[in-house]
What does this fold into?
Amino acid sequence: MFQTLYNLSPVFIQNILISIYGLKLKRLRYSGVYTDTLQNLLVSQTMGKEKIRELQNKKLTALIHYACDNVPYYQQILKQRNILPAEITIDNFAEHFPVLQKDTLRNNPEKFVSQDNSLGKTLTINTSGTSGSPLNVATYSAAIQQNYAFFSRYLLNCGVKIGQPSITFAGRIIIPNTQKDAPFWRKNYSMNNTLFSSYNISEETLPLYIKEIDKIQPVFIDSYPSALFEVAHFIYKNKIKHNIQPKAIITSSETLLDNQRLIIEKVFNTKIYDHYGTAEMAAFITQCSEGSYHVNSDFGIVEILDHNGLPASKGEIGNIVCTGFINKRMPLIRYSIGDSAKFSTDTCRCGCHFPVIDSIEGRTDDLITLKNGRKIGRLDPVFKGLSSIKETQIIQESLASIRVKMVVENDYHHSQTEILVNELKKRLGEDIAIEVDFVNEIKRTTSGKFKSVVSQV
It folds into this structure.
């Protein structure tokens, strides 16, 4: 009903509706334990290696005791192994907890939800992840506030803070499919933020985007790399004069490619700070002023394992396995997130003693190219909430057609196909043919990676 009302409303009413929703999010994210958490985080990021490990051990011990008291899955694990929580430390927890695969979590979500009523109301976050495999994450308000305290610390380290004028390019659909003309952006006055549509970028619309961004003069830009690259490349290619020079550019959700970084930083004459986070609140990896990717050790523990499930050597690509500290409603211990990375052999000059990661793999998707030249990336939001879809891959075979491969569960209903096709058309338009293939499996690349979007154009 809200979506229907929004789509039928004039732009100024849509701005008001987004701002009301933004106020709701602001109260949820930045109240409660947020302020105290942020103050503690500003201290913990200055710790030495020994103090960081002590802090991790303390947080892990508390998490394991809590999980074993309140979460059925972990109660069963310790019962099977006949071990007490007090016997588990940061040095041996990997011996006692098997790697948790996403399928196990998806197929038995109730076993991972805490029975502790003192946490308050359970909130649900939908995620599709890199593999296009939908997952519902249970959480609660205090965990969300802690999560945003980490994000605020990250912004402060980038030289900006929440509440300063900003613009966002992300996966939200803020422009009704029936709208053909500008503006292709909406205002969230509650957060001093302008949301720009990632789905309406084209050669024809980019001059309007650039003019509006120049008018806003954002202090920082928060964007998918592919969307902002389209803007920067258009400026670069056409030698467009502008005064857009934010203090920082924040990127996430996709692999930031070297050529994208080069063009974006050159065009906007500022530094990009890339980061990696998960809706499961299992890991947080942020880029510092020296360009290094640091695992935020006070957020959780990140392991990188080889194909045998053993710790990968430094410089060796392996699977990211995470233990998050902040979400008691659905604690995840040694959770395989589905992406890959490698620990660096170098130390960072920035002074932070959090571990350094060379690169994060597994988030490089091809872009879908439409007939009018628009390029669409990050299509995985279309699968959010469709819990009977196990895995998906979108293949563009021509400018006029795409094929969607899907591995589905037994309870899949044909009505979900209609929802999926409609969500794709909202982003890609009505004039592209969409074929859906139901398959038993989707092959990985030779390196074991899964590509959620493959373009043959």
Q: What stands out?
A: The chain has three domains: 2-28+161-246, 31-154+276-361, 368-455. The first helix runs from residue 2 to 8.
